[in-house]
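Journal club side-thread
Mid-discussion, someone asked how the predicted structure for our own chain would compare to the paper's figures. Pasting it here so we can look after the session.
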Amino acid sequence: MTACAKWRFEFNLNTFVILFGFAGGLIAWGATWERVNANQVSQAQSIDRLDKRLTAAEVSLRQIDNHEHRISAVEKQAAEAATSMREVESTLNNLSSDMRHAAGARDFAVATGGYRTPARADPAARLRRF
């Protein structure tokens, strides 16, 4: 029977390369972890700063929307007022015209001695004109 080989504890170049490789990997991982955590704080501060700016921009946008709504309402009221003024002007012009015609008819009635025109007062006079 053959005997099992005895295990020997030896250090050679491969052992040192592997040990230093593991140690270097752990150190690099720790440094990376530290940089990630340090950047998370600065990134959180940047996000907070951007959030505040966005909130201020939203407030300004709401104010602008509110002013725009008010201005459109005032413009609509102004347009309606202009339309109403045109209608009032038209009504006044018609009333003025009616008053001129009424005054002319009154003057004619006073000059002819009655409210009826001569053609209407005498039906035969109407026929004589033709």
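Post-session note: The chain has a mean pLDDT of 83.
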